[in-house]
Specification:
185 residues, Topoisomerase I, Chain A, domain 4, 2 domains, two-stranded antiparallel sheet, 4 helices
């Protein structure tokens, strides 16, 4: 029973790390990365659709993204969606493809991105602590129901804390790497 509680907590913590990775991948770091456009929704015949489902996005150069829509009629809609987004990049439409030139990041922009990176890291740590609290409550409920002893509760809580510490350390490593990537000119 205790192992199940710890296993579930560990799986949830791993999902938190995955969410953090996907959040960080959409933050621009001065280099063109197709995942920067993952959150962009294009109006596809009246319904919103992710950009990567209506077009091919590639990065032929370090600071350029090329969007090749599968239907030429979507060029205008894709262009509109990019302009509405918070990317701050102006699309260049040549009638067949859309080019996005990712500008060099200013010092101020870099610092804002680092602030957002740190916030994402903190949010992930809060999620981990919440998962830890839930696991500890389940362990205490097992004791209350008479399934485990006080010593087993202490040992299980220590194991949950070790798992939490491991994931917090992983978050710190991920955040430090992303900060370094953003701040490198």
């Amino acid at each position: 029973m205790i192992k199940d509680v710890i296993k579930v907590a560990e799986e949830k913590m791993q999902k938190t790390i995955s969410v953090l990775h996907s959040d960080l991948s959409t933050m621009k770091a001065g280099r063109a990365n197709p995942t920067m456009l993952d959150r962009i929704q294009v109006d596809y015949y009246g319904s919103p659709c992710p950009l990567n489902q209506v077009a091919n996005v590639s990065a032929p150069e370090p600071r350029m993204l090329v969007i090749t829509p599968w239907e030429k009629s979507l060029l205008k809609e894709i262009e509109k969606a990019i302009l509405k987004s918070d990317l701050g990049i102006n699309p260049s439409n040549d009638g067949a493809i859309i080019r996005l030139l990712v500008p060099e990041l200013t010092e101020e922009t870099r610092k804002n991105i680092v602030k957002n990176v740190k916030k994402a890291g903190e949010d992930a740590k809060v999620a981990l602590r919440s998962i830890r609290r839930d696991a500890n409550e389940k362990i205490k409920a097992l004791k209350k129901d008479g399934h485990i002893s006080e010593d087993e509760v202490k040992k299980a809580e220590d194991n949950v804390q070790k798992v939490t510490d491991k994931f917090v350390k992983e978050i710190d490593t991920i955040i430090a790497a992303k900060e370094k990537e953003v701040m490198s000119v």
